[in-house]
Each structure stands twice: as structure tokens, then as C-alpha cells.
Amino acid sequence: MNDAQRSALRSLPVVDDALNQPVLEPYAKRFRRRFLKRLVQEEIERARQRILNSPDNPPTLSAEEAAQSAANRLAHRKLPLRRVVNATGTVTHTNLGRSILPKAAGAALLTAARHCVNLEYNLQKGGRGDRNQSVEAALKRLTQAEAAVVVNNNAAAVLIALKALAEGRETIVSRGELIEIGGSFRLPDVMEAAGTTLREVGTTNRTHPRDYENAVNENTALLLKAHPSNYAVLGFTRETSIEQLAQIGRKRGLPVMEDLGSGALIRLEQYDLPAEPVASDRLATGADIVTFSGDKLLGGPQAGILVGKEALIQRIKRHPLMRAVRVGKLTLASLAAVLEIYETSARPELELPMLRQMTQPLRKVKRRARRFVQRCVQELDGVAEAAVMPSEAQIGSGAQPASPIQSAAATLRPVDPRASVESWEARLRSADPPVVARIQSGRIWLDFRTIRPSDESDLLRAVRLLKTAP
């Protein structure tokens, strides 16, 4: 450290001097002094690091400057969870919160957040009620199940089902279904946490009914099938169907459970989308318990849904772990509104944002992308090369990764060879609201299947920032 740096460090302001600057007076009534003090300390520490990293020309910082920097941060302060524009082409993007809730669910959530609600109160009997009362009846009707219960995500649904039905005993699973999904969720690890012994049968590519038959013993508690939603085994394969498993289960007196992962309440083929297992079909063909997610193909809030036989669901409800994995009023309120759409709407694809994005006609997606490119050409004349290109969107969250949805994207590439698409992508993320795009083939791709019409003006404002991007 040289003399100039020592001098600059000695000249750094005292925290209290910065706190007493007039620019911070308007904030003194709104924020705790301890919080304001921390902001000022952070500004001074940043200045200290700049001085240590600048031996030739160390910067200075006055009390007024430290206070002004803290005030600027307060003026632009935002909560950590921010709205973003999803331009990735992934409809239920895990990192971006998966499904967007419909308006009805947002309204229900707001009501539950701002008011007392009958969460565990039976209005007819005037006493304590079941927490699942707001959604169980609808889930039973939609899936033809005898009973249903909701927990905080599908991993929790699998965990508590295994815990309640198979703890201390064996669960039989095909080797080809020992799935791992995002976040290192591995079925064998969940089974271990549930206290059930994994009994693998068959091989990676072929599992026969006789493999399950031969594995059943006096310690067997459950036959489990897991839908491989995020991968596919092709070629010389053989899968034991849920119907065949159900026959074995009935013969041996064992319950059969299926984890659908994404799951669906309606047939997606009617919209020319890749087929996904429907919960009601799986129950009708023999599964005793079916689990699936609420925030993937259902288009609702994060939740794990269990539907099936009354006796088995009751065992799950009574398990001590239920209190740890149960959901609160906000989840139940929004989920109830989504289920109402499935039950009553003649056109659910118009009310559920997730389904609307997936079913939007390709011609409309292309038309919106073309219009946006025309505006980009006007805004970024001489700065960017803009073009519409065919794109492949995807459902996301592990659903049908090998079956893309045809889409169209507005693509941008800097004209100046000194500019980089990486710096442009970072500039889009710095916008308000941030735009999350993807880089492909040396261009920025803005996929219009996941860009909502209401996002387009914000997207254009973000694109204007590219004029000044390095």
C-alpha cells in the first residue's frame, strides 16, 4: 500500500457523519437507523476496496457522497422476487417460477392474503374443519378418486406416501424408473429418507411383470411406478404397465402407487400437444395412489397432489409428517381457483396462462415476432441485425423434453464486432423488469411463445438499452 492509498483510506467518512446528511433525512422516518447504518457502511466498504485495488489513482469518498449513494439505493430498492419477462421459450420454467397463475387464482390468493378465511373451519357445522376441504371435493370429481390431499410439492407427496405406506418395509421399483429430476431429486434418496427399502427389479431397458412377481415377499409393502417425464429409453425396451402392476397388486394384496411427476388433468392431445398421463386414467386403470405436481401441467401453484383410495389417503393424512409438508391458505386458495377453471370452463386453454402459451397458434406467434422485429429495426438501426427465426419452445419442468413445440423468435445480433451477445444478454437482464432470453448460434433469441402480449412494451424498453451496451 502506498502513501496515496493510506491518505485516501484515512479520508473515508465516519458512518455517523454520513447518516446525518440531509439527503437521508426523508428516509429516517421510514427505515430503522440500524438498516440505514448498514447501507452507509456498505458504501464505505466498497470505497475502501476500490482504494485498495487502485494504487495509482485511489478514489475518494465524502460523507455527502456516501449518503447520496445510500439514498439512491433506497429510492430504487426492490423486493428480491421480481417480475421478469420470460423470453426463453420454456413455458413452465423452473427457475422462473413455473406456471403463471390465472387471474382468478390471483384474485383468490389476494383475498386469502388480506382476509381471514375458513381454512380449517366448517361453516356448516360451526366448528373445526379439514384443511383440504377447499380442494378435495374438486380433485375427487376431476380425477374420480375416492379421496385427495395436498402437500407442498410432488417430492413431498412421494415422500409422505412412502413414509405412511411403506416405512420399515420394501418398495418394488423398476430399474428403468429410478428417476432423477432437477435439483438432484433422486427417487432412491427419497425412498431412503422415507425409511423404505428399495427393491430394484428388471433392467434399465426391460422390466417384465414376472420381475415384480418374483420380487414380492412377506416384507413387501408397495409397488411403485415412476413416470420418466424428463427422459426416454428407446429401442429394445419393455415396460410393465400400470394395469399389469394393478393385477399383481390385487393378487398379492399390495397397494400400487404411481408418481406422474408433471401429471395432467386433461388430455393434451386435443390441443395437438404431446400426450402426458392423465391422473383419472391412471386411477381408472388400477393405480391406488397417484401423485403429481400442481405448478407444471396443471398450471397452478406449487403443490404436490395425492389422489386415490380413501383408506390409503387417510393413512397419509394421519401421518405425523403431514403437519411438516402441508400447504397454507395461499396455496389452497389459488389451487381451488385453478381447479374451478378445469371443472367449469368450456375453454380452459383461454384462462390458464400455461395452457394458453402452449396452444397459441404458430401463425400468431410468428406474426407477433415479425411485428416486434420491425420495431427493433427502427429502434436499433445500425446497432443490431434483427430477424425472425423458427424456434423450438418446450413445456419445461421435465415434461416432454424430446417433444418441442414449434415457435418463432425475434433474434438480435450486434453489428459492431466489438460488442458481444453475452454483454447484450446481461444488459437485458439489467432492465426493469429484467428480460431473460437465451443465446443460440451467436444471437439473442426472444421466443414469442412465452412472451406475453402484455410484456411487449417492457421488452421493447429493454431492447432500447442495447443501444448503449458495450
Report the β-strand fraction as a percent range: 15-25%
Structural class of the helix and strand makeup? alpha/beta
Overall 3D form: globular
Strand element count: 17
- Uncertain spans: none
Output the radius of gyration. Answer: 28 Å
Task: Provide an overview of this structure.
The strands form 5 sheets. A 7-stranded mixed sheet has the order 4-12-11-10-9-5-8, sandwiched between helices. It has a 4-stranded antiparallel sheet with strand order 13-14-17-16. A two-stranded parallel sheet has the order 1-15. The mean pLDDT is 92. It contains 20 helices and 17 strands. By secondary structure, the chain is of the alpha/beta class. It has helices at 3-10, 15-19, 25-28, 33-52, 63-75, 103-114, 133-143, 154-166, 187-194, 209-215, 242-252, 279-284, 310-318, 322-325, 329-344, 348-351, 353-359, 362-379, 421-429, 456-464, and strands at residues 85-86, 121-122, 127-128, 147-151, 170-174, 180-181, 185-186, 197-201, 220-226, 256-259, 289-293, 304-308, 384-393, 405-414, 435-436, 438-440, 443-447.
Q: Which helices and strands occur, and which strands form pairs?
A:
Layout: H1 3-10, H2 15-19, H3 25-28, H4 33-52, H5 63-75, E1 85-86, H6 103-114, E2 121-122, E3 127-128, H7 133-143, E4 147-151, H8 154-166, E5 170-174, E6 180-181, E7 185-186, H9 187-194, E8 197-201, H10 209-215, E9 220-226, H11 242-252, E10 256-259, H12 279-284, E11 289-293, E12 304-308, H13 310-318, H14 322-325, H15 329-344, H16 348-351, H17 353-359, H18 362-379, E13 384-393, E14 405-414, H19 421-429, E15 435-436, E16 438-440, E17 443-447, H20 456-464
Parallel strand pairs: 1-15, 5-8, 5-9, 9-10, 10-11
Antiparallel strand pairs: 2-3, 4-12, 6-7, 11-12, 13-14, 14-17, 16-17
Helix pairs in contact: 4-5, 6-15, 7-15, 8-9, 8-13, 18-20
